[in-house]
Automatic annotation (TrEMBL):
It comes from the Bacteria. This is Peptidase U32. The lineage of its organism: Bacteria, Bacillati, Bacillota, Erysipelotrichia, Erysipelotrichales. PANTHER family: PEPTIDASE U32 FAMILY, TRNA HYDROXYLATION PROTEIN P. GO terms for biological process: proteolysis. Keywords: Hydrolase, Protease.
Amino acid sequence: MQKGWRVMIDFITTPFSLEDLKKLKEAGSTSVVIGTPFFSVRNVHDFSVEELPLVKKECHKLGLRMYVLVNRFFVEEELEALREHLQRLKDLDVDGIYYGDEGVYQEAKALGIENRLIYNPDTLITNHSDVQYYLDEGISMVTISKEITLDEICAIAKKVQGECEVIIHGRLNMMHSKRNLLSNYFSFLGKEEDIRNKMDLYLMEEHRDEHMPIVEDETGTHVFTGFTLSSFDEIKDMVHAGIRHFRIDGIFHDADYVIEALKLYKSILQDEVKGREVFEAYKKKYEKDHVTHGFYYTKTSKVKEG
């Protein structure tokens, strides 16, 4: 597949329409993440339940793996809808189901499809024991936390027996509240503003230039990092550590943005360009996005000494 890399790399991307699937495949994507109303949060596009068979048919024709987001946290009265949705995904024979709620695991296990689950609890997976525990439960893959350093990510991957995924590109979710924080804020101010499902709102601290996108939808309020994560200079280290699954999230952008990043990562792995040079050029091109290395070189936890 690649000059200097004999392993198969799974590039997981986010389509914004049915038509994007072919473009993503041609650019080198091997899997796509599909979101649906109600069951998915923080997805780049909602494909209706009725569209899922069309998406599956197109993915099958193109040779793309179809992963579906079921990453909402469900309350008791929503479990029946969850069961029906998981049965639907089983009947469609989807390749993977992202989840963060342990209830999804229990319902999927009852249907005999726990081996298609991908555990992605955002910040919680920070050591190899946790990764191995979930893999030993029979699920297919675990997403390593994006809030730990590159060394820590690689150390986890080297010790784990099974499949790991890393989110390597895009805005990162940093907070989710079930409260309607924006609506409550404007209500407190005595203002009526149409803020639901708006993708162009952001928070900005007084002494920082970075802006943090904030979205309020039917599941509450989502705040994203004030920077865009890139991994141009780090992807080779992660491949060396044994990671084979890399996700590029295009939220707040479009499919062309995803395709551009995907091609750059492939060029780096093919030794056509150097990761550091790509990072510097990309950072200048997307200056307003505050492109950084994320937490790769910054510990986000403190250890007591002495």
